[in-house]
Each structure stands twice: as structure tokens, then as C-alpha cells.
Amino acid sequence: MRKKERSRGRYRWTGAVITWLLFATACGTMTPGARLRNEIFWDAAKECESRHRTLHLDRIDPGGNLTMYADAESRQDFAPFLACYREAVRARIAQRRQAGLPMPDELNEEPTAEID
Description:
By secondary structure, the protein is of the alpha+beta class. It folds into two domains: 1-30; 31-115. Helix content is 59%, strand content 12%. Helix 2 crosses helix 3. The longest helix is centred in the first third of the chain and has 27 residues, at 2-28. The chain is flat, with a radius of gyration of 20 Å.
């Protein structure tokens, strides 16, 4: 019986290591521009999500456009969230430009959002 338990533990550990390696590989394949876009959009979205707790992020596409879901009867928060998100994106872009930091050429400064 102990031998079966050990082999199950090895399979779980091996699965965890393989999953981690796949994740690390996927993260490492992002270009610097894609990584920067992701950082700008994700940070802005999380900032606004913390202010509008009834709306929740689902996905952010490479152009910064959001797909979200909402708690019941909370769609009235969508317009203020979108205004917050766009302003936060613009502020992050302006901060990087003022600091003279590199910016990706194809950065969407007016991303959209939708509730799924």
C-alpha cells in the first residue's frame, strides 16, 4: 500500500513541476512591448476594479480591451468603471513618457470594455 501512495505523490509532484515549467515558458515568451502593455492595462484595470467592487475582470486582450462580469443589478457601475480605466491607462502612459521610459508603438490609449 505504501508503494502506491508514494507513486501517487510522485505523479502529483511531477504534474506540478510540469505545470510550473509551462507557465514560466509562456511568461518568458512575451516581447518587452507586450509585457509593458500587459503591465499598464492590468495595473489600471485592477486599480479601477478595487474602486468598483461589483465589476470583475475576466480577460484583457492585447489591445487593452476588457471583458468583465458583473454582480447582479450592478451594471450601473460600468460607465464610471470605464472612465476610471481609461483615465488610469492615460495616466500611466503619461508618467512613462514624462520619465523618458520606452513605450510600445501600438499602444491603445482608449481601450474599451464589455460585460459578458
